[in-house]
Amino acid sequence: MKLYLLLILQLCISPLCESKQIAITFDDSPRKAEGYFSGPNRAERLIKELKSHEIEQVAFFSNSNKLNAEGIQRLQAYSRAGHIIANHTHNHPDFNKMSLDDYVQNFLLADSKLSQFKGFKKLFRFPFLREGNDNKKRDGMRDALKKHGYINAYITLNNYDWHIETMFQAAIEKGVSVDLERMRKFYVQVMMESIEYYDEMAQANLGRSPKHILLLHEMDISALYVGDLVDELRRKGWEIISPGEAYTDEIAQYQSRRIFPYNPGRIGEIARDRGQKKGLWHETLDKKYLEKRFSEEVLNRNLEN
After folding, report:
1. Residue 211: beta bridge partners?
2. Residue 1: which pLDDT band, with cuts at 50, 70 and 90?
3. Cβ 51 vs Cβ 60: under 8 Å
4. What is the DSSP pairing of strand 211-217 with strand 20-29?
5. Which long-range contacts (CB under 8 A, 24 or more apart) does 135-139 make?
6. CB distance 172 to 36 below 8 Å
7. What is the DSSP string of 138-191?
8. Where residue 301 falls among pLDDT bands split at 50, 70, 90?
9. Do β-strands 238-241 and 151-152 pair in parallel, antiparallel, or remain unpaired?
10. pLDDT tens digits, one per residue of 66-75
11. Given CA atoms 291, 195, 89, 263 in this order, what sign does their dihedral have?
């Protein structure tokens, strides 16, 4: 009996017994909604899914140029439900294509407009994850975030969920019959493949699984399937945590000295700084790859290679 208890104790102090942790975030809110759901219906469904799956808090990284009456209503609904409203710039500019001064002003405009929401927190996520394509821009925005009390809301788990949404909406617009069960399986499978890939990369470079931050977008497929994704994560031993808790991980303090015109996310940054040059973007972050799988797995069409 003592030997059995000792074995259990050894297992539980080993890395295999540690629960992996993940926070969920949504970019581009309140995102255009003219397809499967209307904006209010999307928000209602998303809030319901998060609550029913006991996800207490997520973050909605928001663009303030979308704050018409309906957009304000949507963000208020998320805020009232206990979720974070965060800064994703005014109009989602590409930092690679504008000056530092203009970018800072865009960021500050969003700060002033988004602060009206009760759930507003000073978290900033760079559109396209682009943090500056030269030293002046990179360091200038780092200084601006620090000056205004912001956290750089990096991500660790990258994906192209937005392209899956594009394919889904295009099929509906064309009148193609989309089997929602096949769509659910495809979405969950693709997302899990990406999540597990970046977690393995993290463990290879950090020796551990950090507090992860998952990048999603405020879209119809998120409202439809985020609960199914969470179910699969929990089935595989993941714990859902708040964004606030996730940003207490020590990698939140990591600042690469390298310039990343196209940023793969925090885990990709660390891996590149440690010498990894290939595989910083998983295969699921490839449009043609996703289009082939969508056609085969969702639309049930066999395509030639």
Report:
1. 21
2. very low
3. no
4. parallel
5. 135/259, 136/100, 137/95, 137/100, 137/103, 138/259
6. yes
7. HHHHHHHHHHTT-EE---SB---HHHHHHHHHHHHHTTPPP-HHHHHHHHHHHH
8. confident
9. unpaired
10. 999 999 999 9
11. negative
Residue 159, pLDDT score: 97
Task: Give the tokens for residue 219.
Answer: 């879209």
Structural domains of the chain, with CATH: 19-297 (3.20.20.370)
> What pLDDT shows up at residue 302?
65
Integer Rg of the chain from CA: 20
> What DSSP element (H or E) covers 217?
strand 211-217
Q: Are 138 and 132 in contact (CB under 8 A)?
A: yes
| Separation between Cα atoms, residue 253 and residue 162, nearest integer Å | 28
Q: Give alpha helix (H) positions in 69-160.
A: 69-80, 100-114, 135-147
Give the mean pLDDT of 29-45.
Answer: 96
Percent of the chain whose pLDDT exceeds 90: 91
Residue 46's CB: how many other CB atoms inside 10 A?
Answer: 28
Residue type, 16: L
Average predicted confidence (pLDDT) for the chain: 94
Give the bridge partners for 59, in sequence order: 25, 84
Closest by Cα among 132, 126, 114 to 155 = 126
Cα 199 to Cα 205: distance, rounded to the nearest angstrom:
10
pLDDT tens figures, 254-269: 999 999 999 999 999 9
Over the stretch 124-138, which tens digit does the pLDDT of each residue have? 999 999 999 999 999
First CA to last CA across the chain, in angstroms? 57
Residue type, 302: N
